[in-house]
Amino acid sequence: MAVTLPTDVIDDYRRDGAVVVRGVFSPADLAAAEQGIEAVLADLGPVAKRASAAEDGAFVEDFCRWADVPAIEAFARTSPAAEVAGALTGSSTVRLFHDHVLVKEAGTRQRTPWHQDLPYYNIEGTQQTSVWLPVDPVPADASLQVVAGSHRGPWYLPRTFLDGRAKWFPEGTLADLPDIEGDPERFPVLAWALDPGDAVFFDMLALHGAPGFEGPGRRRVLSLRFVGDDVVHAPRPWDTSPPFPGLADELAPGAPLDHPLFPVLWRAEPS
Ligand SMILES: O=C(O)CCC(=O)C(=O)O
Asked: Ligand 1 pocket by C-beta < 6 Å: which residues?
């Protein structure tokens, strides 16, 4: 597998912190992603959650299932996603940090609130990225939204999606989110219509969210989170989302993520 990304895709990613990548995933990659999503939905794991109020449709999320859902592991290991992550981040090694399934059924009014992923995590570093790969067509007005340039920071306070609680960094220790929709010049929002096979790659510090999903059909997404050379362990005194129980006893603060939980998916060819 060797993917050559046009240089403007890499330049756009580095400038904006997000980019759409079209035409690199095969029907077999998509079939593995879809099979993985359906296996997860049929048997939700211990940290799965319903991220919408009952009256607002169904937004279901699950995390960290690759080790028990073979189709997710197959997608992670055999699709070009990790190689694309290496090209975008300039990392010589790409590890899987975790998988994340995000499904909105038709009629889901619940918006995914604006947030950054990195403040929920137990890692720090810039050579990281996530792929957001829908296996259903998603129109632009229901697609992932990313604030261009927000990957340069600052970090904003992570809150629970449904009731806005500060469960991670304590209240007041990070800035609260700005009014993104209220200042479109300062916070330009990117969003793309996606067909199956298209994917958005976005930096874990990029501010992002997503509208509800009216339908027709479903909005089933497999997302993989990738970490590269400069990413290190940053254990927190709270349960991160997702949690990695016991990891703090095995990996020192500041250590690279060299651990079986985070398998190497791709390495650059020696030059
Ligand atoms: O799929 C969504 O609704 C939002 C995606 C998201 O927040 C994420 O992938 O981190």
From this structure: 100, 102, 112, 117, 132, 144, 208, 210, 221, 223
